[in-house]
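SAMPLE LOG
Freezer: B-3
Tube label: C17
Construct: single chain, 84 aa
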Amino acid sequence: MREEKTVLLLIDELVCNSIKRKTMSYGMVDIEADGPISGDYSMMCFAALLVEIGGFFCSFYGKPTPISEKWILDALACLFFARR
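STRUCTURE (predicted):
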């Protein structure tokens, strides 16, 4: 939960600064999971990226602890992760 708050505060600050400078920003978020259903499987990693026209960017990467004992081996192989 602490990492989530940190990411949201960082994105909020960057967006507010972008508005003050009147520049366009683009934000992207991606997650990778070890299965297709969020309740049954775990998020393995996530990343956020904020880019402004003119070259400024900020990124964040997180790797949370798995919450489920279920996983699909092929999904892990695509990510180059191991659960054990």
